[in-house]
Amino acid sequence: MYIVALAWLFVACLLSAGQTSLIAAFLTFFFWGVLPLALVLWIVGTPRRRRRLAREAERDDPPPP
């Protein structure tokens, strides 16, 4: 999964390098690279976070009397 994320950032970097101004390059990299990638990685990581929270909650529960 991380190789896809790196490839996406590479393409976004190339797109931003072709822009005419520095502000346009930054906005292109942010809105076409960082923001969508962060959203996708957050959505894909949600089940893992839920399992981790469930394990931690299960470990922190006191044993029944």
Structure description:
About 85% of the residues lie in helices and about 0% in strands. It has helices at about 1-15, 20-60. The chain starts with a helix and ends in a 5-residue tail after the last helix. It has one domain. Helix 1 runs antiparallel to helix 2 (about 20-60). It has 2 helices and no strands.
Give the CA-based shape: rod-shaped
What portion of residues belong to β-strands? Answer: under 5%
Mean pLDDT: 90
Helices and strands, in order, run as HH
Cα(first) to Cα(last) distance is 44 Å
Radius of gyration: 19 Å
Percent of residues in helices: over 70%
Structural class: mainly alpha
Per DSSP, the total helix count is 2
Number of strands: 0
Q: Describe the biggest sheet? A: none
Q: Could you list the spans in which at least 5 consecutive residues all have pLDDT below 50?
A: none
Number of domains: 1
How is this fold's topology laid out?
Blueprint: H1 2-17, H2 22-60
Helix pairs in contact: 1-2
Report a brief summary of the structure.
This protein is mostly helical.
Properties at a glance:
65 residues; 2 helices; mainly alpha
